[in-house]
Amino acid sequence: ETGVTQSPTHLIKTRGQQVTLRCSSQSGHNTVSWYQQALGQGPQFIFQYYREEENGRGNFPPRFSGLQFPNYSSELNVNALELDDSALYLCASSTGQGIPYEQYFGPGTRLTVT
Amino acid sequence: AQSVTQPDIHITVSEGASLELRCNYSYGATPYLFWYVQSPGQGLQLLLKYFSGDTLVQGIKGFEAEFKRSQSSFNLRKPSVHWSDAAEYFCAVGPNTGNQFYFGTGTSLTVIP
User: Fold this and answer.
1) Residues 6+ away with beta carbon under 8 Å from A67
2) How far is CA B36 from the centre of its chain?
3) Which residue of B has its CA nearest to A39?
4) CB neighbours of B40 closer than 8 A, spacing ≥ 6?
């Protein structure tokens, strides 16, 4: 069974640029959630995708957007990068909307905005 | 509003000593509660979860946690800490409707020989 993978591992961007982060969900999982973890903080929920549709969003501006593909992999796109976007971005997959459910996290992508 | 509080930012314990990490939550309904561990540069690994039933739950790596509704707490315990337990620990509350998980700010554990 393949776990959750994320790419790239690290990324350095300049303020104002755009970035795309990628996540492959665990086999058999159709739901992907994205989190932002700033240094010294807990993960903050960005949004969730279920069967290719956005299925809930946290308190993040529209310049944070996403996609989920038919194979349930996902992308997180951030436009007009700001310095405060520097963080570890975590992807988590789960089996779906059934409650209760567990999330399995990937290793994260470390984004640095200069 | 839903929230999770981990009062201890950093804890240091001696190897072999017992450990308790505190977690308090605010949630409007029956919560689903989780403890995760994060090693440096890594993602989060699930230690244990509480959904219903027995309020004392067992997890991996010898950890356990007790749900106390009256105190809105879900404290993590381990009777004897190993050096490899040094990491960041996060408590989280999950939804019984919707899909948003709320994480605490974490407790950093240092284990000294």
Assistant:
1) A49, A52, A74, A75, A77
2) 6
3) B105
4) B87
Number of helices (H), then strands (E), belonging to chain A: the values are 0, 11
Interface test with B, best of A91, A101, A111 (most B CBs within 10 A): A101
Determine the longest span between alpha carbons in chain B, in angstroms.
44
Each residue's pLDDT tens digit, B49-98? 998 888 999 999 999 999 999 999 999 999 999 999 999 999 999 875 55
Q: For residues B102 and B93, give the distance between their C-alpha atoms in angstroms, rounded to a whole number.
A: 5
B62 touches A at CB < 8 Å: no
Helix, strand or coil for residue A53?
A: strand
Cα B93 from chain centre: 10
Closest by CA position to B68, among listed B33, B110, B106:
B33
> Which phi and psi (to 5°) does residue A113 adopt?
-110, 125
Q: What is the CA angle B99-B26-A97, rounded to 5?
A: 15
Which residue in B has a C-alpha nearest to residue A48's C-alpha? B99
Tell me which residue of B36, B3, B26 sits closest to B107, measured CA to CA: B36
Average pLDDT rounded to a whole number, residues B10-14? 97
Give the one of B45, B101, B105 whose C-beta lies nearest to A41's C-beta.
B105
Nearest CB among B98, B104, B105 relative to A56 is that of B98
